[in-house]
Amino acid sequence: DKRKTWCQVWGENEDSASKSTEFHASLIAPEKFDWRNQNWEKWLQRWERYRVASNLARMTSTYQVNMLIYVLGGEADELLDRLGLLEEEKEDYETVVRKLTEHFNGKFNLVFERSKFFARNQYAHEPVEEFINNLHSLAKNCRFDGLKDELIIRKIIQGIQNVQLSESLQVKRYLTLKEVEVRVKQSEMVRKQQEEIRGQIEGKNLDVANKEVQQGHTAARWSSCERCGGFHKNSPCAALRYKCNKCQKIGHFAKVCRMNQNQVREIAADDNESNSGSEYHLQSIKVSAISREKPDIEVTIGGNVVGFIIDTGADVSIISGPLYNSLFSKRFPLSKTDLKLYGAGRHPLQLLGKFKTTLSIKKGRKIEDTIYVMKED
């Protein structure tokens, strides 16, 4: 029969019971007591945990006393002799611990410990959980007894960083320690959630703002009117009823007549700003908004997008006076220039001035350039 008898079961239970009461010497004891700082309460707390976990508490009282004195170190033997205990008292664990506690607490600075507690406030960016735990730890050494919870409540309310919550809790008459801790922890959690939500909303608002800016730039893409040379959106052009004095055709002014289109395509520059007095001729203008041809590229100047013609063989950038007055005069004041430009047949072109700015083109490329403003007849 493989079934166990009652005697066998009883014997096994006896063996397991005896094993559960064995002292586990392999369990590492607390660190040696610091006789200089003499933080007895803290060390004793760790020792009591070790005494229970190692089954030392199940041993005889004499055995426990010997283990305690051994772990405390050689100074403990001398101290035990000075405590004035009777021989039988030296073998009673509870009596020895009580006498040691009275000895060490006699050197305890209660005023200092309480000062640390009342001076403790929540640090900036310190989690409220950490602040509350530290208050409980400090209160252990203050001997507040029955006032402990009430004083911790007052210190939490006075010491938290949230001034509005502190004022709100101060007017409450009856609050338990648990209620106060729950309130301040919930408030911190809600604040963090709101900050996260605000961050997400601000990110979305930034995207919307960027789109509005881009739309604003699109709205600023005005080109000079091919009929009058001015700048207007969808309103009827006044030149529709006028006859051109050059080609005698109705529908545009003489200054924008295509008969003088070649004049824009052949411009020479006389560099009087140098002492050389030499001249050089350009096949066409490098970047120009005065041409009536379809723009090759869109260039951003001061937040406004304008169509321009590109010629890699040119050396100057030029825009018309009406374009400057419409979009750039308020932001970019003109400075005087001695540069002379000549059109076809050495016909001089009158310049109103120049200004320096940043030209932005596609793919984020930016260049610093001088823009010359030409007066139109």
TrEMBL record:
Pfam families registered for this protein in UniProt: RVP
Keyword field: Coiled coil, Hydrolase
The keyword Hydrolase is assigned to this record: yes
InterPro entries to which the protein is assigned, alphabetical: Aspartic_peptidase_AS (IPR001969), Peptidase_A2_cat (IPR001995), Peptidase_aspartic_dom_sf (IPR021109), Retropepsins (IPR018061), Retrovirus_Pol_polyprotein (IPR050951)
Alphabetized GO MF terms: aspartic-type endopeptidase activity
UniProt domain Peptidase A2: residue ranges: 306-345
Coiled coil: 76-103
GO BP terms in the entry: proteolysis
Name under which the protein is recorded: Uncharacterized protein K02A2.6
Organism expressing this protein natively: Lygus hesperus
